[in-house]
From TrEMBL:
It comes from the Eukaryota. The record marks 83 as: Transition state stabilizer. This is Peroxidase. It comes from Triticum aestivum (Wheat). Residues 1-24 form the signal peptide. The gene is LOC123072695. The keyword Cell inner membrane does not apply. The lineage of its organism: Eukaryota, Viridiplantae, Streptophyta, Embryophyta, Tracheophyta. Pfam families: peroxidase. Its cofactor is Ca(2+); heme b. Ca(2+) 1 binds at residues 88, 91, 93, 95, 97, 109.
Amino acid sequence: MAPLPLLAAAVIAVVALGSVGAYAAAGQEQEAGGGNDLRQPPVARGLSFDFYRQSCPRAESIVRDFVRDAVSKDVGLAAGLLRLHFHDCFVQGCDASVLLDGSATGPGEQQAKPNLTLRPSAFKAINDIGDRLERECRGAVVSCSDILALAARDSVVASGGPEYRVPLGRRDSPRFATAQDVLSGLPPPSSNVPSLLDVLRKIGLDATDLVALSGGHTVGLGHCTSFDDRLFPRPDPTMSPDFLGRLKRTCPAKGTDARTVLDVRTPNVFDNKYYVNLVNREGLFVSDQDLFTNATTRPIVERFARSQNDFFDQFGVSMVKMGQIKVLTGDQGQVRRNCSARNPGTADGLQWSSLVHTVVDAAAESLGF
């Protein structure tokens, strides 16, 4: 269905909520009972909520403490860690391949264009967490992909966002994706809703997941070059004139090397104001604002703008779904000792030690041991 004219969309918003002020006020609500009773997604085979109970019982608290302390010193790290998890899962699945450095076979995922603006401090934080866990667990026990999933959740919590349980037990891939895989898995910020849904449906996510996960843009920064096509040569008509003027002060010409906040209301707080921004035509990217312009996703945006609890509930569900995309478990992949490099002795995606254990276990089983 074609998007409604802007005036009609505005009328719908006003009728549904009374006024823009009503959106802002409703966004503060914290309904009793914690919002909707959403069905939690099934846990992928090989994952569990107590995966490290025996092997490293303090794993989650170590990650939580590190992230809380690091974000208190650098608030921008929260968005960096969350984005790192997104960029990992959408390309080749949640396997920590985005952390791998390039090799003789070619450049790693970090060198692909969509990943050039990932925060170096986020990569360092993951490696630092890995070092702490290796000391605590007395070896490489917690996978880099599990660290990514936990650090993303804990960065959300540290910014004021929702708590949600993270299934654990992922293994790490010894291979990074190609640049083309990165480009096809990470749609640009100029994408509209139909093209975004095309990408998400291929990995088991739907329109509600799209709107909820986009709410991660309630924290973080955007580069002028990611949205200046909306400013020059002619302004995007879906953008508020006041917002346009504000952006042009930061990005006075096409190609300006500058950044601005993704959420103009509460840029460092994880809340539902991102959706209030969209209703007020203050979404930074096309991929943001089109969520309100598009008839399929607009009702979801309106619901999340009215109720922060609804957003928080759905965000947790959608993050768990996303965090299980094409996960490696069991004997698949490896637990990398250095999150930036595959383990020594890796061949055909497995460590030699894993191959030996597999052969020995199979022989023992055949003998009835």
